[in-house]
Amino acid sequence: MSLPVWQALLALLLPTLLVQGQARWRGCPQAHSTTKPALLRLSDCLLSNYTKGVRPVRDWRKPTTVLVDVIVYAILNVDEKNQVLTTYIWYRQCWTDEFLQWNPEDFDNITKLSIPTDSIWVPDILINEFVDVGKSPNIPYVYVQQDGNVQNYKPLQVVTACSLDIYNFPFDVQNCSLTFTSWLHTIQDINISLWRKPEKVKYDRSIFMNQGEWELLGVLTQFQKFSIEASSYYAEMKFYVVIRRRPLFYVVSLLLPSVFLMVMDIVGFYLPPDSGERVSFKITLLLGYSVFLIIVSDTLPATAIGTPLIGVYFVVCMALLVISLAETILIVRVVHKQDLQQPVPVWLRRLVLDRIAVLLCLGEQLNSPRLSATSQATKIDDCSAMGNHCSHSGGPLDLEKIPWGRGSPPPPPRGASLAVRGLLQELSNIRHFLEKRDESREVARDWLRVGSVLDRLLFRIYLLAVLAYTITLVTLWSIWQYS
User: Fold this and answer.
1) Burial of residue 427, with CB atoms counted within 10 A of its CB: 0-12 exposed, 13-18 middle, 19 or more buried
2) Spans of the chain below 50 pLDDT
3) DSSP bridge pairs for 68
């Protein structure tokens, strides 16, 4: 190779070597001095001519890559009403500062140095979901390694906006995002990448405080680019914090009391339908459930965009109690005894006692003897008791108009005949009173049979509705809990 070629190569490489040497040893005449401690000499060497207002790269076309990492320490608060999540995280970020490099041999083999954060350039990475300034401790130092790698570790109390879905309360799972991005610099200046592998970030619960209301299921990561203008793209790293509520407290304090009250309402159907105590019992249950809802109203989460399913459950239970009370009032009205109560209509007797009773497998226990047969037997017994002094129509005979035979004793005197006639009239009135009483009792028994059949029918329909509703809710909550 000719001499001019070597001269040309040397002319190209020499400025680069001089620039690197000047940048490496700029302002460091005390690098080999022994009068100062090594840490002080290194700090003075790095910060003497450092400009923190400029991105620390030698080639402005090269972007600064910032590695970020998040470890969730605790879930402090979940405000469903204001849609705010408060978490405490350990945040780590690192980047390469090309102006903070040194040779460890010149500084007593120091490979790592802590320097004030305010003295160097720091990327403007923020969380997009920030809604309030948390009470985070101030960490004034960062670690700088010999190759210019800057490590910034700090704990953060993060108060962020989150779209909380409370429909599945208290078996809800929330997914809230923490989006780290540069507020000003585009992806050509600052790029964001993940410090660790996504699998290690997802299942890292090493420092999570697992004794609170919320359980950490995992932290998912996603990198994406977005643009506000067509020519400007920004890099962002999303951390999805997936948490699940522990429902035991709410099951014990909300669901079990409601279940107990509903069970007592079902048991109340076994009280006799003609007993007025059932109405009082149902009203007491309804009042108790109303007081229970007033007490638990502060426990339920409230938002303007939706109502949790457990709130719908409480409303439906209240409606079922009202329906149960209305059914009880109807049955009591049907079986209530009255002096002028009308007989059971034929169509109602056929529908309830002949069809619905058979459908409910009540058997022949509701059948009763006909009223006419009972009345006829009573008339025959009355005539027999009067010594056959009855006409064929069933009434008493006129003793004076009876033809007496030759061998028959003479009729009693007229005064005695009047006394016997009065006595027979009194007996006839007693007989008619007893017949009317038996008729009213028979009508009351018929209405009681109709009321009993309707009560059992409505009870079974009510029980099926309660069971279907309960099974549906339990199935949904089980799917949400173990999904």
Assistant:
1) middle
2) 1, 3, 6, 14-27, 368-402, 404
3) 93, 194
